[in-house]
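TICKET #2291
ISSUE: user wants both folds in one file
ATTACHMENT 1:
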Amino acid sequence: MLSLIRRTVHRGYVSVLQCSQSTVSGQYKVVKYSQYDSDCLGGLKDSLNKKRG
């Protein structure tokens, strides 16, 4: 059970890193970057909430 939680958290971190990297490499403007990043983090929070609930 603990390994499942650890794997989920790790996957979440990786997805956030990928979001940040793809945004930087795409050279988005600052406004788009913050919006895109917050969408990624929001998705991560939603997935964690679903796992918990």
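ATTACHMENT 2:
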Amino acid sequence: MIRELESQGVVSKTHSPFNSPIWPVRKPDGEWRLTVDYRALNEVTPPLSAAVPDMLELQYELESKAAKCPTICHGLIQAALEKGEAPEHLQYIDDIIVWGNTAAEVFEKGKKIIQILLEAGFAIKKSKVKGPAHEIQFLGIKWQDRRRQIPTEVINKITAMSPPTNKKETQAFLGAISFWRMHIPEYSQIVSPLYLVTRKKNDFHWGPEQQQAFAQIKQEIAHAVALGPVRTGPDVKNVLYSAAGNNGLSWSL
């Protein structure tokens, strides 16, 4: 990858007292992503808080029937879209989605946004543009019929996991499932035995209680229900379920 970029004139050899070490990372599709290792610089740099949208709030705004999701590779996208007076859209860092009542409407909105970004100097990979479609993945979540679902590949990955053998593996498993906790009734109570073995003051001991929790949460993930907007109106009845126990509290609507 480095030799190819050098032959194209993108990078060149140099001698300097300063160094920004590049670090090629293999992407899931087999291609390479060029990153820079700024860990040493970050240690001595005051943090700058960025106004990153809340993923949950964005998800509640996705109530479209058809959507198109171009994924862009570089920053300053928001400024370019505002300057170009882009049609209504949602953006999370470098992921963008538009929606509409018809496929034609979605196509035109997506076309306009792509045009704005290209004119601003951004490069857009054709394979990253999806839709218009009634089913699409955005922010790693499957969206269909105005509802959010756990993608099949995520379910398969989680259900194929073997029981952890140490604290680090347990934390990795909890990290993989915690993002989907909204889909699991009484999630906190189910996984509480798993959190017990990750505490610093506790030695790692995988017993029957942990194994039962491990198996149960995988089953819950495999059969998780889709979530949609809360319906309101005089003829709609919403029920709030709550539960309390020695291991925690939970509720669902």
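RESOLUTION: both attachments delivered.
EXTRA DETAIL ON ATTACHMENT 2: Residues 103-119 form the longest helix (17 residues).
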